[in-house]
Specification:
With about 675 residues, the chain is an alpha/beta fold. Bound molecules: FE(4)-NI(1)-S(5) CLUSTER with Oxygen.
Length: about 675
């Protein structure tokens, strides 16, 4: 009997039920025909642990794991007597687990930021040929936030300071943010003053990034912090260290080194791969290597070499957030989302997949074994145990040589392709490359470059509000269905959408990142604005660390006037319909602590501790002006966001239909007084 059970073939995913995307469906089926399992199939055979899922499994010591599943009785109002061996309650356990997720997410984003800061400093010191200070305007804009002067006084005259000197000081000051011994994170003051003052009053201002992560690990160890409210105070401090610290610095320093994104055209989905080209897929998160690969793969030397080997050229494609980074700055097409990484290899046309850190499936190595694909890890902290994986460690001091070696390896591998190439045809055009600066220009014009026009259109009701829809794919829900349904429902109701991460890739694949989308999917007000200024109703703002751009865009909205004095007053809401990564929890917490209502879909990791969950979902609004929510149904999810936006419109007194007039500063000030 036991043998019979073991022999049972694993279940296969139904491709149509697994994804709304045709290319994905085709490639899941293709993998199944070839006998290759993907995450979609594995999810059929591995059900999530029901107790871990509720957030109430504690494995922080060797006496457990202590498992505290919720019961029907407790749900119905019975006294909750659950406790672990040490006495930890469900609230304590769920809060500890939640805080550890925040610490992990903050560590991931911020360690990325630290690496960028180190490369930045090496560029400022001119130690590398591959990196330089490219966007000096952004350097000058960012320097004052680090307390770095951009002018000098000489003989009673104010002179521009040397750019190299400024860059060096910015790099040094930035790097100190991870471990300085006193003070608070310098970027916190970029938030609107009432928000900064609130964080001061609540005692949640991060001191330095590393310390906040370490303190969570300490406080969540057995026998330390046993008050879920106190734990969440530290959770918030750590999350803010990510959003207004590590992530924001990563974005800024990357922009200075690699260029601030401006709108550009590109394409998305597996169909961007080309049969007659060398295909290199770049996957992961840190753009320091991928930037150089992009540059090297465009050199005549490499293109000639590719032709010599029988290819027509070199086609780059991205997966996950590296994809977003090189798309935003260079227009490199997106090959797919997090859940399409294995499928890119299943095409049989992936000559090399280059990975760095985060969101990389270890099963890529097993899939690569079935094809000619060279799977190359590049980061010292992220290797794979399988023996077919090549490790080419990347170092900023010889970045060009490393990138050349990788590109050459891919070209050499082109001729090893088997006959089993199958690239799906699907790909969609898109406009990407938005950011705080380009929104200013597009919605404000070159003479009036600011957020006034956006604010005016929110005030007059053409735009109902702002939705920030971000985050991962989660194989426990239909790939991209939540993302697309939430976004379409928002724009249909005149909510402009700012997107990052895998949501942005999903929207790109579905063609939502084009100005033409406005006519098809938007409500009349938003459609009118998009048509007038020629932007898509869904603006791609980059990778997940670039959620910091959303914080700063919202801050610009506050600054432009008429929509309140703090982020919590703006008619805006956040969403991650298909989240799965710990990073998403960190992002959610810093967005909530910045005053924004945030809804997650698919699952929520605190359902086994209703009192703690209430603290996040209800009490947080009283503390921060923003709170968490959970809604798996994407239409209801979108309408919860819209209801919140309407609540904020009402509080601002802009809920009534208004005469559509262009407001000046005086009008906006009058509104604020009212
Ligand atoms: O940092 S959205 S699946 S790729 S974690 Fe990963 Fe989630 Fe995609 Fe980027 Ni963000």
């Amino acid at each position: 009997m036991a043998d019979e059970k073991e022999k049972k073939a694993p279940k296969l995913a139904d491709p149509v039920a697994a994804s709304v995307d045709l290319a994905t469906q085709v490639m899941i089926k293709r993998a199944q025909e070839l006998g290759i399992d993907t995450a979609f199939d594995r999810a059929e055979n591995m059900k999530p642990c029901n107790i871990g899922n509720q957030g109430t499994c504690c494995k922080n010591c060797g006496m457990g794991p202590c498992r505290l599943p919720i019961t029907k009785g407790i749900e119905a109002g019975e006294v909750d007597n659950r406790k672990g061996i040490c006495g930890a309650t469900a609230n304590t356990i769920a809060a500890r687990n939640f805080c550890r997720m925040i610490a992990a997410g903050c560590a991931a984003h911020s360690d990325h930021g630290r690496n960028v800061a180190e490369v930045f400093l090496s560029a400022a010191r001119k130690e590398s040929d591959a990196y330089r200070i490219k966007d000096t305007q952004k350097l000058l804009a960012v320097a004052p936030h680090f307390g770095v002067a951009i002018t000098v006084e000489k003989d009673g005259e104010t002179l521009d300071r040397d750019l190299d000197e400024i860059a060096l000081e910015v790099g040094e000051k930035a790097l100190r943010e991870w471990g300085k011994d006193a003070g608070e994170l310098l970027y916190l003051k970029r938030a609107p003053k009432p928000r900064y003052d609130l964080w001061t009053k609540l005692g949640v201002k991060p001191r330095n990034i590393d310390r906040e992560i370490v303190e969570i690990m300490h406080r969540t160890a057995i026998g330390v912090d046993q008050d879920y409210k106190n734990l969440m105070k530290q959770g918030t401090r750590c999350a803010l260290a990510d959003g207004w610290g590590g992530s924001m610095m990563a974005t800024d320093l990357q922009d200075i080194m690699f260029g601030t994104p401006y709108p550009l055209q590109s394409e998305a989905n597996l169909g961007v791969m080309k049969e007659d080209h060398v295909n290199i897929i770049i996957h992961g998160h840190e753009p320091v290597l991928s930037e150089v690969i992009v540059a090297v793969s465009q050199t005549k030397e490499m293109l000639d070499y590719a032709k010599q080997k029988g290819a027509k050229g070199i086609q780059l494609g991205g997966i996950c957030c590296t994809a977003n980074e090189i798309l935003q700055r260079h227009g490199v097409p997106l090959a797919g989302t997090f859940l399409q990484q294995e499928l890119a290899i299943v095409t049989g046309a992936c000559d090399a997949m280059v990975v760095d850190v985060q969101c990389v499936f270890q099963n890529l190595a097993n899939v690569a074994k079935c094809f000619h694909t060279k799977l190359i890890t590049t980061h010292p902290i992220a290797k794979m145990e399988q023996d077919n994986v090549l490790h080419i460690e990347f170092d900023e001091h010889h970045a060009l040589e490393d990138a050349k070696r990788i590109v050459k390896l891919a070209i050499d591998n082109f001729q090893n392709r088997g006959a089993d190439v199958m690239i799906p045809q699907q790909k969609s055009p898109m406009i990407a490359g938005f950011g705080v600066e380009s929104i200013k220009y597009h919605l404000g014009g070159s003479f009036r470059g600011d957020y006034f026009t956006l604010n005016d259109n929110i005030i007059n009701g053409r735009i109902r509000g702002i939705g920030a829809v971000v985050g991962c794919n989660n194989v426990r829900t239909k790939h991209n269905e939540g993302h697309l349904t939430v976004v379409k429902e928002l724009i249909k109701n005149d909510v402009i959408v700012l997107t990052t991460g895998c949501n942005a890739i999903a929207c790109a694949m579905a063609g939502l990142l084009t100005p033409e989308t406005a006519q098809v999917h938007c409500g009349p007000g938003l459609a009118e604005v998009c048509e007038t200024v020629g932007i898509p109703p869904v603006l791609h703002l980059g990778s997940c660390v670039d959620n910091s751009r959303i914080l700063l865009a919202a801050t610009e909205v506050v600054r432009a006037g008429g929509l309140g004095k703090d982020l919590s007053e703006v008619p805006a809401a956040g969403s991650a319909p298909e989240w799965m990564s710990e990073k998403a929890i960190t992002i959610g917490q810093y967005v909530v602590a910045s005053g924004v209502y945030t809804v997650f879909g698919t699952t929520f990791p605190t359902t086994g501790a209703p009192v703690f969950q209430d603290y996040l979902f209800k009490e947080h609004e009283k503390i921060y002006g923003g709170m968490w929510d959970f809604e798996a149904d994407p239409i209801k999810h979108a309408h919860k966001m819209i209801a919140h936006i309407d609540k904020k419109r009402k509080a601002l007194g802009i809920d009534k239909a208004r005469e559509r007039v262009l407001m000046d500063m005086a009008d906006r000030q009058k509104l604020e007084v009212a």
